[in-house]
Amino acid sequence: MVKEILYGIVPSVILFLLFLNVNVGPFLVFAAVLVGIYFLLSRQSGTGLGTGGRRKRSQHVVPKSNVQFADIGGQERAKRELMEALDFLIRKDQIAHYGIRPIKGVLLTGPPGTGKTLMAKAAANYTNSAFVAASGSQFVEMYVGVGAQRVRELFREVKQLAEKNGQDSGIIFIDEIDVIGGKRDGQQQREYDQTLNQLLTEMDGIVAEEKPRILLIAATNRKDMLDPALLRPGRFDRHIVVDLPDKQAREQILRIHTANKPLADEVELEKIAQETFGFSGAQLESVVNEAAIYAMREQAQRIEKRHFAMAVDKVMMGEQTDREASDEEKRRVAIHELGHAIVSEFIRPGSVSQVTLTPRGQALGYVRQNPLEDRYLYTKEALEEQIMVCLGGAVAEEIYYGGRSTGSKNDFEQALAMAHEIVQSGMSRLGIVHLSYIAKSQVHEEVNRIIEELLDRTRRLLRQFDSVFTGSLQILLEQEVLSGDVFRRLLEQAEPAAELIG
User: Fold this and answer.
1) DSSP string, 381-426
2) What are 169-211's pLDDT values in tens digits?
3) CATH number of 327-501, picked from 1.20.58.760, 2.60.220.30, 3.30.1490.100, 1.10.730.10
4) What is the DSSP string of 103-150?
């Protein structure tokens, strides 16, 4: 109605002013500015987060999910802690009896792909709560105050949704909370501070007597970036680490994702779990999916062991590339990778799963190792052995080519990092030291001494395996792949004395 009136009045006023010979230019400019501001405000308020205009459907209400905690492989401790926090939404009489203050917030921390979002969705089903979700980036705007307004709207939405569905609890999930919850150091924009302040205010407003009762679940990969005001008790009361799965959890995740897939009898999920140390749940799901894709390409009736081997390589190293190396370059890469493989297999028998010359990602070749057990603590001896594995490729090139190549750059970076770890951990000749209290030249000399000593030990070891280099090199150049079993049979014929690496 208002628009129709304006459409009739404005042209009439302009014509009348023109009839009186009045300069209408300034009026038109002023009117254009007003129209622009009107449409800008209308657009902002029409997103479903403003206070005026026609409201669109909320972007935060998440469709009903069937995810249950049983569908999430591994993470037993994290699931147990989260379920206990959720019980406070369900067992109201019990917590009132013990005088327990309900938990207001749960912070899920851990590497990407470990299941933090899945756990938040399962939480909504566990409690039959209204569930709304948002990402930290959705609160970032160039207009000051918009982020704070969206935080208020998020809490309002979950309450309205719970009331509409007859639910007495609601869960808000904010992913990437470090975007808006970063430490306030005076250097960031005012918009970030206002958004964080509003979030703190809303969390303080959550009370036990409130109905529906609200629980805020947030996820981040960088807990160290969050403001201390968010982390204190009374806001995020529970900090739950959702870490990378161990071997048993990896096997459980693989079983969940292969439940609806035709597997060949030869496939051993336990062995795949052993070979995928350090993989997240998302990566394991990708391994299963890629293995199925490889089987479909070949029109195979079942997903075979070799399909999983190719899938692990793809997820770990990337897709195969079309780079075609010269014969001499292939031979050098083969010598380099065999150096890694021989040292690894001699130090940890059974650790080499495959040696290949197939280019993947930035690598012209690689050795896929099979860790015999998940390891989180390392002794000096274990670190030295791992450094020798890293140096094996460069040493092999020295023996057969008289020098090194740029292919050893990444190996040296890893070796130097581990040698530096030996010094930092008080396992070097420098003893227990604080790096800021000693000269950098001393650290450099000690790291260099460790590397040189291990280079010498690696040379003495590899010189005993000339026959293994010869036999393995021929297979690699012809087939581009050398299986761990074949490689171990070649090693059995040239086993040197154990004191060679001592």
Assistant:
1) HHHHHHHHHHHHHHHHHHHHHSS--GGGHHHHHHHHHHHHHHHHTT
2) 888 999 889 888 888 766 555 666 788 888 888 888 776 567 7
3) 1.20.58.760
4) P-EEEEE-STTSSHHHHHHHHHHHHT-EEEEEEGGGG--SSTTHHHHH
**Is 298 known to be catalytic?**
no
- Give residue 247's Cα distance to chain centre: 18
Residue 416 CA to residue 463 CA, distance in Å, equals 23
- Rounded CA-CA distance 367/27 in Å is 75
Among candidate residues 290, 337, 384, 398, the one labeled active-site is 337
Cα 89 from Cα 227, distance rounded (Å): 26
**Sign of the torsion angle spanned by Cα atoms 193, 194, 198, 204:** positive
Rounded to two decimals, the pTM is 0.73
Least confident range of 58-62, 152-156, 166-170, 468-472:
58-62
CA angle 119, 123, 128 (to 5 degrees): 155
Q: Does CATH number 3.90.79.10 belong to domain 69-241?
A: no
Planar angle of CA 407, 410, 415, nearest 5 degrees? 120
Sign (positive or negative) of CA dihedral 104, 110, 112, 115:
negative
User: Is residue 462 a contact partner of residue 399, using CB atoms and an 8 Å limit?
Assistant: yes
Mean of pLDDT values over 60-73: 73
**Per CATH, the architecture of 247-317 is what?**
Orthogonal Bundle (1.10)
Please write the tens of the pLDDT for every residue from 443-486: 999 999 999 999 999 999 999 888 888 888 888 888 888 888 88
